[in-house]
Amino acid sequence: MAVGARVVVGVSGSPASLAALRVAVEEARGAGRVLVAVIAWEPPEGEGLYARRPDRAWAGHWESEARGRLDRAFDDVFAGAPLGVVVERWVVRGSAGRAVCDLAESAEDLVVLGRGRGWGRARRYVQGRAGCRVMVVPGPVVPRGVRRALRKVRAEDFSPLCS
């Protein structure tokens, strides 16, 4: 292993990206590498429209939202910071695929991405352009009927006082 080789993981908050985060931490811990967790964001209206009417407060809001999703991902998977691994958290403005490729700068790095309902375009971009190994982790499989039922769940369904 080359000195400075890292494990770069793309995080979006989706179940597949949480599975990738879990695997990436194990890979980093086992190899003694630094874990680089990256979440990318773009203005919801797109960069073209944002350029016409830039609003730093609006951009700051979306950057803060992305940072919160990255922090929640670590909280959901590890209840905070994972033990036994050095973690760098990056919030990058731009496309997800490009952000991951830019951070995986060494041929000795390892990129870990989740395969699920998100990251499809980013995953294809990274697999086609990364100058290092890419590991794709499948997300949890939720049967279609269960997904449909979960969309109809309300907060009151979990409250013991409403029974």
UniProtKB/TrEMBL annotation:
Protein name: UspA domain-containing protein
Organism listed in the record: Streptomyces rectiviolaceus
InterPro entries to which the protein is assigned, alphabetical: UspA (IPR006016)
Domain UspA: 6-137
